[in-house]
Write a structure and sequence with these properties.
The chain has five helices and no strands. With about 140 residues, the protein is mostly helical. The longest helix has 29 residues.
Amino acid sequence: MPAIIHSGMPFAKVLYLGMTALAGILAVVLMTLHTGCSIDDCIGASLEAYRIWYWLVAIPGLCIVSASLGYVSPRKAWIWGLAPLVAQWLWEVLGSTTVGTGNLGPFAHVVVLAAYALSAIPGVIAAEIAAYLSRRKGTAV
């Protein structure tokens, strides 16, 4: 592994964090392109298609990314499971025109954050299991 992405270096952690955040945003963008349904205007069957593809394709993909980074960089591995979903939440908050409007105001953002926090649980578990295996095997850098 090149020295620039050595896991002990702070730059590597920032690079890994950026990769996981980009993976989270890319998952949302690909789901939007695939289903034709964006975060703002999902109704009916397209909303169901978006949810099905999100939970059957995007979340397992993000778990693989989180687990691989948890294996390579096992210290505080929960971050690798949480970062993609935080990036998705920020993408939604900054790009949404409907969330946060209406009677709920900014409270709607808190509700959406809670939903993303619950969605992050599989990724955090995958990253922690991979970190445990890495520490146990002794391959952690």
